Each structure stands twice: as structure tokens, then as C-alpha cells.
Amino acid sequence: VPVRRLAPAAGRVYGRRWLVLLLFSVLGFAQGLVWNTWGPIQNSARLAFGFSGWDIALLVFWGPIGFAPCFLFMWLMDKKGLRVTVLLTSSLMVLGAGLRCVPVSDLEIRKKLIHGGQLLNGLAGPTVMNAAPFLSTTWFSPDERATATAIASLLSYLGAAGAFLVGPLVVPSPNGSLHQLGSGSNMEHIKDRIEAVLYAEFGMVSLIFSAALAYFPSRPPFPPSVAAASQRLSYRRSFCRLLSNFRFLMIALAYAIPLGVFSGWSGVLDLILTPVHVSQVDAGWIGFWSIVGGCVVGIAMARFADFIRGMLKFILLLLLSGATLASTWFTLTCLNSVTHLPLTTATLYTSCILLGIFLNSSVPIFFELFVETVYPVPEGITCGVVTFLSNVFMGVLLFFLTFYHTEFSWFNWCLPGSCLLSLLLILCFRESYDRLYLDVVVSV
């Protein structure tokens, strides 16, 4: 069949695409920050609000629960575009952040309002987690898509990392003497600092909503590529295509299992590290650098994938091999009484940071591979299915933590097992690049 190279006039990009990407990325950052508010300061929250271990795990659990209407948001994005979906998402976040700030003296009512606010913020998760490939295809040229996907998808992780930093630095830890912990002034001081964090997050979310309301277009006047302008499958046909595609199901599980386990693990990292005598501040720094490292390397990897196309499987094999080794090192270090490996802050920092780098940086690479594998299924529906699966695994783990929050050794062993399983699935996967082929080579 005669073919020709894609002409420059076939697609057009606009400078405003970076503003759209910035607004969406900041929205994802805020959603991740609000979701991870309580895990890094769980000891302080227990003292100030009377939270139990069950409450702390449930506050994290509202994130995966919020993915229950995931496909409704994906349908809305496919039919109405990004603007309507982003405005609905940001309004839910404003309402949720506001509920957490309602000044009620009754602690039981206050706890219910906080739980309700976390649930509403969790409902924003499907958009900020799934819409990145849709945004990058809609606004960016083929040689910028992976980079845009990485920035838009990883900023929510950076928000969760920000909670590891902001919470322990702003809110004092109750790691003091018993008579200090019981003093009313100490408890009120901790409560006031937590309130300051909640008000600051509410103000930030409100500002982002106002900016999106003022300017956030659904799509550019002209598409940036042939793939962006092409007709996509209907909602029903998309699900049939996804569920009948064995290769897609393989990589969907390769993504969902380790990322779901890691998300649940990082959300209660402070609880996991408490038995090995790691302070709340140290646990916060470990969580922060593990996610920040993953975001930086993830964007760099995506940029590399834009320059050298057709290497997504190879990149994933490298990242998952590193994740398997790092998670095994961390798990064996926590069992130092058996393995006699040195249990120090340095070893915990190193193993956790490496694990975060390898797993978090794989997210945009996975997203791009999903879309390439099942094109012309809409990007939002494709990523919605895989993130829904990931949150199912995360939810199952957090469900067990809710009822067995004193046992964490089995949770640590889930990490290397899930990474190894994902590595084996990627090894057996046969990659294809249907969307890239359409953009690079067009039939006459």
C-alpha cells in the first residue's frame, strides 16, 4: 500500500497547551495532597481528634472507594470533553476540603465530616488519574505525548509526597513523655496546627477551581495529530474490545497489582515504620523522597520514550526489575532479627526511595503502552479500566488493614511478590504501536 510521511500541516499545536497541562497537573497535585493528609500525621491525629487505627486506614481507604463511579467520569469525559469533567471534579474537591474545615466541637460529628470530605476528594481520583493520556493526545504532538502524560499523571503522586513533607513539618509529633501527651495544651496545639493544614488545603483547592472555571477549554481549535482527529470506538464497543484483548489484560494486571499494593503501602507508611522505631518525621521524609524521585525519573523516562519510540516494553522491564530488587531489600531489612541486615535510617531511606522511583516512574510508560495496544479505544476508558483495577487491589489491602491494623509483616511481603509478578507478565507481553503507526505513516 502506498504510504507517505505525515505532513507538518496535518496537525497543529498551540502554546496554550502548557497552560492547560499546568492547570490539570496542579489539580492532580491538590487531590493527592488532600488524599494523603492523614497518613503522615496519624499519631498526631489520634491525639487531637480521637482517631483510631481503623479511622486512619479508612481515611486512606476513601481514595479507592472513590473509584466506584470511575466509568461514569470516563463516559462524561468522552462525551462532554475535559472542561466539564475537570469542573465537576474540582467542585467535588472544594466541597470535600470545605467539609473537613467545618468547626464543630463534637468530635464524633467532626470525624464524620472529615470522612465525608475524604470521600468527596476520592471521587475526584478517576479524573486526575485517568485523564492524562486523553489530555496529551488532545493537545500535544506525537513527540510530546509521553512527556505530557508523565507530567499530568505524576503530579498527583507529587501531591501525596507533599503531604509527607507538609504534615510532619507543620504538625508537631506527639512523640514525647506520657505526661506531655496527656496535657490539654499539647493536644490543643496539635489540633490547631492540623486545622491550619486543613484550611490551607481548602484555600488551595478553591483557587484551582476558580482558575479552571475562568479558563480550561475542552479541546484546541485544530487537533495536533492524525490520532487526535480520528474517530474512536463507542463506549460499549470499547469495553468489549478491552475485555476480549488478552494482551491488554496482561499489562493491565501488570500495572494494577504492584501499583495498587504500593499505593496502599505508602498511604500507611507511618504505621508500617512505627514498629521498627522510625519517627513520624523520618517516615514523612522517606515517603516524600520516594515519590519525588519517582516523579523526576518518570518525566525523564517519558521524555526518553518521546525521543526513542518503540521502547516502552524495554523501559518497563528495567523499572520493574529495579522495583523487585528494592522491595525485597526493604522487606528483608524490616526482618533484621532473622536476616541480620542493618536496620538504619539510611537503609530504609535508600530502599524506599529506590522503590518509589522505579514504580512511580513506570506509571506514564504503562499509560502510553495501554493506549498504543488498544487504539482506537478512547484513552480515558482504557486508563479508567486499569486504574479501577489498581484501586481494587489497593482497596482489598486496605480493607484487611482496617481490621488487622496491628499486623504489617504480610503487607511488606506483598510488595516484592507483586513486582515480580508484574515483571513476568511484561516479559511475556508482545508490544504493538497502533496509534504511533497512524501518526507516522498515513495511507494514501
UniProtKB/TrEMBL annotation:
Name listed for the protein in its UniProt record: DIRC2 protein
Family: Belongs to the major facilitator superfamily.
Alphabetized Gene3D superfamilies for the sequence: MFS general substrate transporter like domains
Keyword Transport: yes
CDD domains: MFS_DIRC2
Species this chain originates from: Crypturellus soui
Reactions it catalyzes: pyridoxine(out) + n H(+)(out) = pyridoxine(in) + n H(+)(in)
SUPFAM superfamilies: MFS general substrate transporter
Transmembrane region(s): 18-35, 56-76, 82-102, 150-171, 196-216, 246-265, 285-302, 314-332, 348-371, 383-404, 410-429
UniProt GO cellular component terms: lysosomal membrane
Recorded topology in the membrane: Multi-pass membrane protein
InterPro entries: FLVCR1-2_SLC49-like, MFS_trans_sf, SLC49A4-like
Places the protein is found: Lysosome membrane
Keywords from the named record: Glycoprotein, Lysosome, Membrane, Transmembrane, Transmembrane helix, Transport
Purpose of the protein: Mediates H(+)-dependent pyridoxine transport.
